[in-house]
Write a structure and sequence with these properties.
Blueprint lengths: L2 E4 L4 E6 L2 E5 L4 E4 L6 E4 L4 E3 L1 H9 L3 E5 L5 E5 L7 H11 L3 H29 L2 H17 L8 H23 L16 H23 L18 H6 L5 H12 L6 E2 L2 E2 L1 H17 L1 E2 L7 E2 H16 L13
Parallel strand pairs: 1-5, 2-6, 5-7
Antiparallel strand pairs: 2-3, 3-4, 7-8, 9-10, 11-12
Helix pairs in contact: 3-4, 3-5, 4-5, 6-9, 6-10
Length: 327
């Protein structure tokens, strides 16, 4: 997917003479609509005309609005989605069938495998025995305790397994972060640069997951693992688990290459935000995998294939397996 990222105060987006025009007081550039698939508005202070929005919709361009933490606060996407009514009816019924257990087991298996895979990759870089112990312990938990059987306490049991793997993962991950960042654990409310980066990156992934699920005809608000909450896209919370490694890996790469994100008022600065978004976009669009296909596809395409495979599984048309990166 070709993504155009817009940030900065006073920026205006309009459509004129067959092109999108992006301008502020000191800059003006034009972008042909056929050169982009997604328009991401990453900061406040950006305005977009209704004509530009209508043109984006007519061309199938996804428009996403992010808040200062990278969370998608809104999106406008074209009304072409796959077998929506049929798929959603089956999705709602699936919660009370064996399919719910199969989906959750597959996603958590993939998440834990990717956590171990990331640590294993960095063990071969660092040869740190504690990193080796970390990934082997995570794999042991996965192999001995998954899949979880269909029981009344299924959610509690599988979330406890996930939590134990996560504790080992994050304590080991912290060993790979440069010491001057003071990162020792994962904290969603943490004010240190590493937790701020992780939070922002996961927010960016939410928009990718959401789009993939909607295009597959699935209801992003009807999940299988996380507790239903009014107004919360619970299936997005479920589905993203197998892809969180993307952000973890990019953060690790950038910080170990001495990139210094700027934190302003507990948030990433605009320049740091833009750079981080570009690196995530680069990974999604340039990194290849053959996990779902016999020929290489981008990670973004694999994410979409995973969503379509989930929808097909719910319709009894295919099996479902969580996404595991080619470690």
């Amino acid at each position: 997917m070709r993504t155009l990222i817009i940030s900065g105060y006073g920026v205006r987006i309009r459509f004129r003479d067959g092109v999108f025009v992006i301008e502020n007081r000191s800059l003006k550039k034009t972008v042909p609509p056929m050169s982009i698939d997604q328009l991401v508005i990453a900061t406040g202070g950006v305005s977009i005309t209704s004509k530009a929005i209508r043109k984006a919709m007519s061309l199938g361009i996804d428009v996403v609005f992010l808040d200062s933490r990278g969370e998608p606060v809104g999106r406008i996407y074209p009304v072409y989605i796959n077998r929506t009514v049929e798929t959603r009816r089956i999705q709602y019924r699936a919660f009370n069938t064996y399919k719910r257990y199969d989906v959750v087991n597959a996603i958590i298996y993939a998440k834990i495998t990717n956590q171990a895979g990331l640590l294993k990759r960095y063990y071969y870089i660092t040869r740190d025995k504690y990193v080796r112990e970390g990934y082997t312990e995570i794999l042991s938990i996965r192999d001995k305790e998954l899949p979880v059987k269909e029981t009344r306490d299924f959610n509690e049991e599988i979330m406890e397994i996930e939590a134990r793997a996560a504790r080992i993962y994050w304590s080991t991950y912290s060993l790979l972060i440069p010491k001057d960042y003071g990162f020792d654990s994962r904290d969603q409310d943490g004010a240190d640069p590493v937790n701020i980066l992780l939070n922002y990156g996961y927010g960016l992934l939410y928009k990718e997951v959401w789009r993939s699920l909607v295009l597959a005809g699935l209801d992003p608000y009807a999940g299988f693992l996380h507790t239903d909450r009014s107004g919360k896209p619970v299936l997005v919370f479920d589905f993203i688990e197998q892809f969180r490694f993307i952000v973890d890996l990019i953060v690790l790469r950038l910080l170990r290459k001495k990139w210094k994100p700027v934190i302003d008022g507990g948030l990433l600065s605009r320049d740091s935000r833009r750079y981080f978004i570009e690196k995530i976009e680069e990974f999604l669009e340039k990194e290849k995998t053959t996990y779902y296909t016999s020929h290489p596809v981008t990670i973004r395409q694999a994410m979409k294939k995973a969503a379509f495979q989930l929808a097909a599984f719910l319709r009894d048309e295919a099996s479902f397996k969580g996404f595991i990166y080619d470690w």
